[in-house]
Amino acid sequence: MTQTILHIDASARHTGSTTRDLSAKIVERLGGDVLYRDLTTALPQINETWVTANFTPADQRDAQHQKALALSDTLVEEIQAADVLVIGAPVYNFGVPAALKAWIDLIARAGVTFAYTENGPKGLLEGKRAVIALATGGTEIGSEVDFASGYLRHIMGFIGITDVQIVAADRVMSDADAAHAKATAQINALAA
Questions:
Q1: Whole-angstrom Cα distance, residue 123 to residue 91?
Q2: Is the CB of residue 81 less than 8 Å from the CB of residue 21?
Q3: What does the mean pLDDT of the chain come to?
Q4: Which label site among 2, 17, 52, 157 has the fewest CB atoms less than 10 Å from its CB?
Q5: Residue in 37, 76, 80 with CA at minimum distance from that of residue 58
Q6: pLDDT-based confidence at 192, cuts 50/70/90?
Q7: What is the per-residue pLDDT for 1?
Q8: Domain ranges for the chain
Q9: Domain 4-188 class?
Q10: Angle 38-41-44 (CA atoms, 0-180°, nearest 5)?
């Protein structure tokens, strides 16, 4: 059976982007049917209208509520249809790009991608895998100033995706060749 990959790119750069290059190589390595989402096509920030619609029970939403949630519903459907998420995410100023944070805000929805239980939140998108390609100029992935990898791993787990692998080309500005070689080796080691 062919797997479905949701390929998300968050880099502001199209030309010369390490994460776009890495995420494309990951998708090629894994193989399957691909849904693609480029986050440089700006996503809206959540606002009061969106929050009100989101917290209105589905059977009580009016046309304005449905319109406010339409893009969010589409983004969630893309994740639900995927077996694997491949996310290309550069580290900007020690964290994730604003475009990726906007995507996260639109897909992390109580009762849809996670549920509140008596034992705390439970992710509803279990049985999926995420491979995250990270690139940094000078931050070492896994260091105390890397706020991106832990955050993304946490968010994936929060929505139920606990099989998360990081492919890292970190400290590219210090030694680009070594960073790319390390990331390529990690990609070649991925199980398809």
A1: 25
A2: no
A3: 96
A4: 2
A5: 76
A6: confident
A7: 78
A8: 4-188
A9: alpha beta
A10: 115
